[in-house]
Amino acid sequence: MLVLRILIGVGLAYLVLLLLAWLFQDRLAFPAPRAKLPDPKRVGVENGERVELVSGDGTKLVGWYLTPKVGEVHTVRNNLPQPPRASPTSPTSAGLLWFYGNGETVAAIWPIVREFQPPGTAVLVLDYPGYGGSGGRAREGALYAAADAAYAALTARPDVDPQRIYVYGRSLGSAVATYTAAHHPVAGLILESPFTNAAAMAKYHYGLLPRFLLRLSLDNVANVRRVSCPILLFHGDADRLVPTAMGMAVAAAAAGPVEVVLIHGAGHNDTYDVGGRSYRDKMWRFIGRTGP
Q1: What is the pLDDT of residues 204-216, one digit of tens each?
Q2: What predicted TM-score, i.e. pTM, was given to this entire model?
Q3: Which DSSP letter does residue 6 get?
Q4: 3, 116, 128, 244: which has the highest count of C-beta atoms within 10 A?
Q5: Is 269 helix (H, G, I), strand (E, B) or coil?
Q6: Distance in angstroms (rounded) separating the CA atoms of residues 139 and 136
């Protein structure tokens, strides 16, 4: 009798666990931290401006647009291929869309975006729906709608060449980035710590939960199969949150050329620190040498 009660108790507990997983999987995937969007001028980013967009589903989004910086870094990076300079006859620059990880906001990562901004390249970074200072609710479809709005806004900029749009995505942002590259013309795609898809991540971290509960897709593998532009892929070889093997599977599935850069000793959240200047220079080279 005692054994039966234990089995019933375990069964009920498992059912409750399944119900919670069904109800709260969006919150697990999209923790959506809130933070007020800083004014770029007040934090010393003179080439930055606050932007406000409305996505296709009506969500109000906020973020930063960084105008191209040309000249000040060339003296210390003159041995590297650089993006084409703007000229009086062609006053447009390359543009970079930046999609961050699931626990980040523009307020948290703006120093990295400023440091990594490639010479001669404009950058647009937005808070996802429900994140930072943006409105709405964090859901997979809402993230993709925000990506569409960001792409449209960047290509509409008079100082940006729509034929030279690059997309960067880290961790969760890799799914937003591959979606963008699969649905819009881009000159190059940069991924950091990409996972294969939501189902594989759920199996890796929550192996006891049945797959039929999962509503999320976040399918990087399916997306990169539709991407023919060059891809630069970074992954820490000590990443325990998103195994390096997942990044290699994404690289193997790509339809176009892929360059893989393993960051030795880096986990999931210290790639910028461990990769450092080498990481940044590799990213700058990629944008400098690829084209439409």
Answers
A1: 877 666 665 688 9
A2: 0.87
A3: H
A4: 128
A5: coil
A6: 9
